[in-house]
Specification:
Blueprint (H helix, E strand, L loop, with lengths): L1 H10 L1 H30 L6 E6 L2 E7 L2 H4 L6 H13 L7 E7 L3 H9 L4 E6 L24 E3 L4 H15 L1
Parallel strand pairs: 3-4, 4-5
Antiparallel strand pairs: 1-2, 1-3
Helix pairs in contact: 2-6
This protein binds zinc ion.
Amino acid sequence: MAKSASKLSLNVSPSVSAVSAVSAADERWMEEALRCAQRALEAGEVPVGAVVVSDGQVVGRGWNRNLTDCDPTAHAEIVAMREAGRNLGNHRLGACELFATIEPCAMCAGAAVHARLRRLVYGADDPKAGAAHSVLQVLNHPKLNHRMEVQAGVLAGRAAEMLQEFFRNRR
Ligand code: ZN
C-alpha cells in the first residue's frame, strides 16, 4: 500500500509540483492576509484579514474595522476591495484575486460578484456565515452570471486558530 502510494506520487510528480507552485503563491498572499488579520486583532476587532492582488502586487489591504469605524459593512474583504478600486481607478476588479483568511459572508461575497473578481482564495470555512458554500452559495450561484474561481483551505488552520483564540479570550 505504502509502496504503491509512493510510486503513485512519483508518477504524478510533474503535476504535483505545478500544483504546489500555485499554492506557494497562494500561501504567500495568504500570509499577507493573515498579517492584516493580526492588525484587526491588535485593534480588538474580530481577526479577519484580506488582500487584493493584481498582476503579482497587493493593490488593497483590509482588516475588520467594524468597531473602529462604527461601520457594519467594514469587513476585511470590503475594506480591501474599496482600496483596490481606488488604487486601480476602477470599480471592476476583473483581473484581481481576493485572498481572505475566512470564507466571505453574504455581503462580502456579493461585493466580490459586483467587483467581477477573477478569483477568490480563502482560508477557513465559516460554518455560521460563509457564503461560498457553507451557509449560502452567493459565489457561482447558478442564477448569477459571474463565474469566479474559488480556492478554499489555504493556511486554514492558522486563520481558524486566530479566530478561536480571539473568541476564547473574549468569553
Ligand atoms: Zn463579510
